[in-house]
Amino acid sequence: MNEIWITVLLMGGIGLVAALLLYLAAKKFYVYEDPRIAEVEALLPGANCGSCGYSGCHAFAVACCGAKSLDGLNCPVAGGPVMKSIGNIVGMAAPQVEAKVAVTACNGACALRPHTSLYDGVRSCALEALTCSGDTECAYGCLGCGDCVQACPYDALSMDAETGLPKVNYDNCVGCGRCVDACPRSLMKLVPQSKKQSFVACSNHDKGALAMKECEVACIGCGKCMRVCPTKAIKVVNFVAVVDVSLCIGCGECAEVCPRHSILMLNSHKELQS
Q1: What CA–CA distances, in Å, run from 40 to 52, 63, 111?
Q2: Burial track 222-235 (b if 16+ CB lie within 10 A, e otherwise)
Q3: pLDDT tens profile 186-212
Q4: Which of 44, 88, 140, 243 minimizes the number of CB atoms within 10 Å of its CB?
């Protein structure tokens, strides 16, 4: 009987010593975490998409609580109201950042670009861009394999069966930029969500005569849009027109004079009007 009590007391003593050691270790190696971090993280969408520039929502919350200013910190998925609430938590004013959405800088549908070859490899834009120039003569247009669609975490992109181009669902698009990173030809762009503006839906840098053969709606760099723009918002760079969104007033004069219908008017982004 005494042996049983000795065993019980011995095990109990070992347990108490172990508990004490764990308590002391916890105190010794305790790392303080700002309680505001949990509050900020609770406001974030939890998508961990990386569009904020950090590895995930927790890392972004830590950055917000540790920063001296919220300038340069923005969660495009959460939007302005959430960033304002985060600013209230950390005691700093959140900068006004305009929401953005994705658009495709290529309007060369299947029927508008003659197919001159057949890519029979793995359906991946990244691989196709490395191995060949695509199914058409245009070495700048959409490859149509849907890498952008696969990269989108919000189901905002799909491949249009008729045009062979990415189609954006603006009800779902949050402007995270994952599609921008996924496109090997840099055709996905982020533009202001609410601003009425002109957008050149072409990225072809070939000279006019060659571009005309490659695609029926290719920009040929003729400069007509540049000459009629009242705010000088358009320049022709490497044989393709480029719009400075900060100067564009959305008058639409450039789209009207474009002989190639390469310029689209982006209004509410619910639809694109050529």
Answers
A1: 14, 10, 49
A2: bebbbeebeeebbe
A3: 999 999 888 889 999 999 999 999 999
A4: 88
Measured between alpha carbons, how far is 46 from 37 in angstroms, rounded to an integer? 13
The enclosing domain of 69 has a CATH number of: 1.10.15.40
Domain membership flag for residue 159 = yes
pLDDT bin (cut points 50, 70, 90) of residue 271 is: very low
> Cα-Cα-Cα-Cα dihedral of 182, 183, 184, 190, to 10°?
-110
Backbone phi, psi, residue 262, to 5°? -90, -15
Q: 111 lies in a domain?
A: yes
Q: Which whole-number Å values give the CA distances from 181 to 60, 154, 175, 187, in the listed order?
A: 20, 15, 12, 10
Whole-prediction pTM: 0.76
- Whether 118 maps to a domain, the answer reads yes
Identify the domain containing residue 59 by its residue range. 35-90
Is residue 15, in this structure, part of any structural domain at all? no
Are the CB atoms for 82 and 75 separated by under 8 Å? yes
Which of 27, 59, 90 corresponds to the end of one domain? 90
Q: How many residues would you count in the chain?
A: 274
Number of domains forming the structure of the chain: 2
Is residue 165 predicted with pLDDT exceeding 80?
yes
